[in-house]
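ok trying again, last paste got cut off:
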Amino acid sequence: MPNTVRWCICALLALMLLLSSAPAAHAADRADEALEETAAWLLANVPSPHVGSIGGEWAVFGLVRAGVELPAGYLESYYDALEAQTVECGGVLSSRKYTEYSRVILTLTALKRDPTDVAGYDLLLPLGDYDRTVYQGVSGAVSALLALDSAGYEVPVNADAATPATRALYVARILSCEHQGGGFSVSGNGEADVDMTAMALAALAQYREQPAVNAAVERGLAWLSTVQEADGGFASYGTANCESVAQVIVALCELREDVDSPRFTKNGKTALDALLSYGAGGGGFAHERGGAVNGMATEQAFCALAAIKRADAGQPGLYDMSGAAPVAIFADIAGHPARAAIDALASRGIINGMGDGDFSPDATMTRAQFAAIVVRGLGLTPQSCDAFTDIAADRWYAPYVGAAYASGIVRGASATTFEPEGTITVCEAEIMLARAARICALDGEEPAWFPDPALIKRGQIAQKLFELLTAAELI
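nice, full thing came through this time. structure:
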């Protein structure tokens, strides 16, 4: 064969190889670019996340799981909002929609915060009530499993539950809603739904070693492949939309299925291609193609992009946080002697920072702040406080002071006042910790009142409280 012909053939083969690999690389680049743009959109449009499905948990959850560098105080701002609302509602996020608890638990797990102690309330406990959890249908069981399995939580024992929940019950409920031929719906009646099927498959991902579960998962994947549209997208109730595509992508990533596999590629278009087609400019996503930016669509699309990023990097799935790295909460405690204690207390929601991502370990603490951290640390139930004239019922610290006073940990500065904003002294802190120790059945007597009202620092208080809770086996 002439050298010229041989050279032409080699060049043609090289060009074909280059072209065949270009779409995949280009798709990965587009996904990374979209994730960065959408992260910027979320930070600009959700600057202070609240408790809720839009502008709240999913935004925070997605940003953390995507490994986005967040502004100082961003995560603390969300936790403070959650804590305030939890106290306001007496720990009842919802009496009917237990998916509210599951969504918050997922986010707290991502933040390395303790869902069993949010302002003294156990937000994991409701998931121990099977009947109430599945009141919403299979979505309740799906969300509960995702929350419980996110960090391998034990199913809580709920004394008020008519039917105590177990993982087996939740799995069985999901399987009972499978349709003949594959796919799931909210109640098991009517037609199978793309969103519900994707969510069910994501929840069942950790149970595929069970033959019945694995068979249902395979049927579900086959069904999703058959209903995938020509442009790579998906429709729910007859309407092609961004959220359905996002849910399928997350499910595929949880199941370790390639998003761009032949089974989920139609006419050369993948689910990722379809997802990106809902981009509405500036990093936002629309519910339907050509529509305006939609908050829910954007947050779900971002979670899907985060799932792809994690899968490409070989990291655990979006909902698998059993080995997630701790989130750095405070930027000013590096090298501080009490850093380990501060980290331990902060990760359990016992102690908070002073804003802007700082803990301020060398600053002082108020009497109200001290009462709050002791109550959280001991797991006491916040309660109303009517013993002091200077404690307004609507102040954030009122239920903490109420609980501390009722438990005998704190007393007033006078017969009728508490002076909540007063700076706590060494003597006061020692006395209150000694009383707390007695509640924990630890040895120790209430120290004598020292005449020198020296002030104690936040870092020192964190260290002493940590030592007390450790001795009491509460940490």
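cool. Residues 39 and 50 are 17 Å apart (CA to CA). Residues 7-26, 324-328, 445-451 have pLDDT under 50 and may be disordered.
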